[in-house]
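Would you mind giving me a polypeptide sequence along with per-residue structure tokens?
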Amino acid sequence: MWFGTLRWRMARSRGVIVAVVIVATVLIGQMATSILNAVLADRALQAAAEDTYTYVGDLMSERVGDFAGAAQDVVAGTASELVRHGGSMDEEILVRALADRLSREPSVGTIFVADTDGHLLALAGTDTGYTRLDVAPGTGNGSTVLRTDYDGSLVETATETTTVAYTAASRPWYRDALAADGIVWTDPYISVRTGEIVVSPVTAVTVDGQVAAIVGADLDLDILGELLEDIPIGADARAFILTGDGQVVAAPTARRDELQRLLDEQSGLPDAEDLGLPTVAPSALDDEGDAIRTRDDTVSLERTMDPDTGLDWVLHLDASTADLTPAVDDFKRASSWVTIISILMVLVAAVVALRLWRPIRTMRVRAATDALTGLANRYEYTRRLRAILRSAEHTEDTVLLIALDLDNFKQVNDEHGHDAGDVVLAAVGDTLLESVRVRDVAARVGGDEFVVVMRLGERGSPVELARRLRDDVATAIHESFAGAAGVGATAGFATTADVGYDPRHLQTAADDALVAGKRVRKGRTYAYGHAAGSESAGDVAGDDAPVQQDDAAAGSEDPARQADSLPGN
């Protein structure tokens, strides 16, 4: 019988299980949503960082292009002026023209003009004015250099003459200008005069099909370094100008000292690896000449310059993701905290649920169960009866309601005490639980009054079910306690086929069958409408046969029993 009791209690706990599952589902859904939000925020951060980086790359490329373009304009303007003068100009006029261009174009540090004989005139801007270098080729590979310092009004302030192992015709810029058609940018090289990296646009001045002079301009890389320092994506961002093969052209102001140290320590130009810059292979660039890579919390961008500038340089940017998209980064942190809190809430809720599971289940069972028998109490029985009838009416199933009453039960309490009576009642409860399915209901509705509600389906006739149930109860009573030999059970039953699906009518019909039958004889099973002596029920019975099972010995000649003996007994 324990299996029936367990099955009944599990059925009673179903509502609690459903509630816990719903709560757990909501909490897990909240946690999953928070985690998903964190993942989406991370993706949004990366996408926003790339969008921001692309924008900054466009902006910085445009700035560098404009900066370099100004130097090209200086070279083009100087070359045009020389062409107008037939390829050469008076030196004083030329110096004033070059000084005027230097004052207008801060991106240029030095403008130089060399003729085909190897004479070179260069004018550089200084903090106090200008410095002019006149280089005259001597014998061998040496040249005489006359240095003249001017103030801001081109008034001579000092002169100095030196001899250097230098010829203009041997310099890379000279050869590049002669080999090119129009303005061309030199590869970066180390200046003989300053020992720093120099990069220059140069062009050959042609008059009547003959090269008359070479004009060039050195970019002011100090100013370019300030431009590379001024990146609108946070204080820690940095930008560099590299050649296509990774050599350093320009570095931000904060790294200029390091760059100069490398120049002093090694022969040749430093490359990106010397400065610890993570670069990508040219094959990694996309169709637009860009490559974005995220490593830890740093995003790197490499972008080739616009081909229209004539520069084969690569702009390299490094910035932290937090600097690129501070708002999205703040959202990511907030989302991470929400995720952590949600997970903690789920864990706490799980612990609380586990701690409350048994008490809640116990309270739920106690609220719906008769403590002595384990059957449904009156409240639970009423609720379940309505639910069963509503469902059965929808599917047009027949429902059987059996009302049972224990005969002479008071005698056990009076003679053997209430503990003995409790044993009998518990035995009845176990029997009823074993006799019903989970979707049926068995209840104790009074001291020794019980009700069973069954959906028939394919289970057989209500007559046989009611009679067998009453027989099982009677047997359990006699087996439970030796002093219960005089106790029996009487049953009355009705079906929805008799009275319809109204719970009150069905209950009343079964009670009427039970009460009318007990007037005839106890210890039997009575169908609604066929119990002898039931005037109201008799009108409903029609031609159906009552079922009667006496607990007394077979063969009794009792007139009442003989009067009630009908087919099916």
Q: What stands out?
A: The chain has a mean pLDDT of 79.
